[in-house]
Write a structure and sequence with these properties.
By secondary structure, the chain is α/β, with parallel strands linked by helices. The protein is built from 6 helices and 11 strands. The chain has one domain: Class I glutamine amidotransferase (GATase) domain (Rossmann fold, 3-Layer(aba) Sandwich).
Length: 217
């Protein structure tokens, strides 16, 4: 049986516990044994971390110690998958560039706050996106600083209505990448748990979690 770790905490506005409660049962249905933790100290337990095939973190606007960060990065570099969404993954630790290097991006703004916007599927043949079409969101449209080595699966285009100087900017929404032997998957969708009521947003995250998990021969 594969093992997954879900770690939640940080800013309550992102409903970290409720979001974990959306996806923990999905992982269990896929055959994972799921551990749920509310402390980053789990990253200090090297032996335990080495057993996980997937790590998913929902921990916004927080800090991580150097020792905790080393534990997490080592687990991923050695093959554990790391997957998550929105600020719980890409606005977790603003003062930790090594962590941001692993993730492949960092949130910097959401002009207009909660707005209507379109998510465009750009890799229609990728298994994570197969059969999905462009769709609408009513949520935060994340403006991000992103790694050019990301394999981008979906994007959104800013209108310039709230910041005219970014009119027409095409921004990654969903990407995957590698960090050492670990697979990284990220979606900027999921400001609150209700956002996963959009079927495409939930399905993308479900597939991304499964894709990121370690493949054991």
């Amino acid at each position: 049986m594969k093992r997954a770790l879900m770690v939640w905490g940080g800013w309550e506005g992102h409903e970290p516990q409720r979001c974990v409660q959306v996806f923990a049962p999905i992982l269990e249905e896929a055959g994972f044994a799921v551990d749920i933790c509310t402390t980053l100290d789990v990253y200090l337990e090297a032996g335990r971390m080495a057993d996980y095939d997937l790590i998913s973190q929902v921990y916004t606007m927080s800090t991580i110690t150097a020792e905790q960060e080393r534990g997490l990065l080592a687990a991923v570099e050695n093959g554990a998958g790391f997957a998550g969404w929105h600020g719980g993954m890409a606005d977790a630790f603003r003062n930790s560039p090594d962590y941001q290097f692993m993730v492949g991006g960092q949130w910097v703004a959401h002009p207009g706050n909660i707005i209507d916007y379109t998510v465009n599927i750009v890799e229609k043949d990728d298994p994570v996106m197969a059969g999905l079409s462009d769709f609408q969101m009513h949520s935060e449209q994340y403006y991000m600083h992103v790694d050019p080595s990301n394999h981008v699966l979906a994007t959104t285009t800013f209108s310039g209505e709230y910041c005219e100087w970014i009119d027409g900017v095409v921004m990654p929404v969903v990407w995957k990448r590698r960090y050492g032997r670990g697979r990284i998957f990220y979606s900027s969708l999921g400001h609150v748990a209700a956002d996963f009521g959009v079927p495409e947003a939930k399905e993308i995250m479900r597939r991304g979690l499964l894709w990121a998990a370690r493949t054991r021969d």
